[in-house]
Write a structure and sequence with these properties.
The protein is built from 9 helices and 12 strands. It has helices at about 15-25, 45-50, 75-80, 100-115, 130-140, 155-165, 220-230, 240-255, 265-270; strands at about 1-10, 30-35, 55-60, 75, 85-90, 95-100, 120-125, 145-150, 170, 185-190, 205-215, 235-240. α1 (about 15-25) crosses α8, α4 packs across α5 and α4 (about 100-115) crosses α8.
Length: about 280
């Protein structure tokens, strides 16, 4: 039986084993998929042990997505560009190939599930870390009109803009400089502020009723942003649960050459964790 796992720290909360179990049943492809707690200090040894024990593929989550890059003998073009890996596949020579399915998962959720037309849109991304990088590179490939990156540390926003290498469409800004800015078509929160319960300081005038507001996380981490966006008048507000499911489907396809249907497991998880949940 094929053996897969997800590595991260923390990892107990991960929905990935449940999602991949559902994919296994849906496609009739038998596999095992477990969650492995891997602190950064021991991750490389744990990954090597997983390889020796017959593991053929893995997902990598925080805080290991950049750390795993030098452990790969090969990187996909997308993973190489963003400098982060969330999907490993064991090659025939027992070395790892690294991919990143976060960006494609985001676009799949926005375009296919939520029917968002991204062509020609003005997009604002909050944050400049690994999640923001994956989102930014993927969004530029959809022919958006422009992308503004805003980060608490302006130098990090500037570094991401430089990496994107598209000065005609990509720019940076700080919250303090948004006073004369018009509302955006899409606002994406790629920050970790929600994990600490921090409230948003984004000016409400940047959000119009038809602005698409999307947090890359789900559950409690996304709650303050969702509340802020709705108070600002947005009617199309989403969290990252769909992105989680779609990036998992992309990884499953890399490993098994079959992309599973995702609506059933998404709807099941959504029913258990409604976007309006307040616990």
């Amino acid at each position: 039986m094929k053996r897969f796992a997800v590595f991260g720290d923390p990892i107990a909360h991960s929905l990935s084993p449940r999602i991949h179990s559902a994919f296994s049943k849906k496609t009739n492809i038998p596999l095992t998929y477990t969650a492995i707690h891997a602190p950064a200090a021991t991750f490389e040894d744990q990954l090597a042990e997983f390889n020796r024990d017959g593991g053929i593929g893995a997902n990598i989550t925080l805080p290991l997505k950049s750390l795993v890059v030098p452990m790969c003998a090969e990187l996909s073009d997308f993973a190489q560009r963003i400098g982060a890996v969330n999907t490993l596949s064991r090659r025939l020579d027992n070395h790892w190939r690294g991919d990143n399915t976060d960006g494609p998962g985001l676009i799949e959720d926005l375009v296919q599930r939520h029917h968002i037309n991204l062509y020609g849109r003005r997009v604002l991304i909050l944050g400049a870390g690994g999640a923001a990088r994956a989102a930014a590179f993927a969004l530029l490939e959809t022919n958006i009109e422009s992308l503004v990156i805003s980060n608490r540390t302006p130098a990090r926003a500037a570094a991401l803009a430089d990496a994107l290498a598209d000065p005609e469409r990509v720019m940076t800004n700080t919250v303090a400089d948004f006073r004369n800015e018009h509302a955006f078509d899409v606002v994406i929160d790629a920050t970790s502020a929600g994990h600490s319960g921090a409230h948003h300081k984004l000016p409400a005038h940047l959000i119009a009723p038809n602005t698409v507001c999307y947090h890359l996380s789900y559950g409690k981490a996304a709650r303050n942003f969702i509340a802020f966006a709705r108070q600002a008048g947005a009617t199309r507000v989403f969290d990252g649960l769909g992105m989680l499911v779609e990036q998992a489907a992309e990884a499953f396809a890399i490993w098994n050459d079959v992309r599973p249907e995702t609506d059933a497991i998404y709807n099941e998880l959504r029913a258990e964790a409604p976007l309006d949940a307040s616990d």
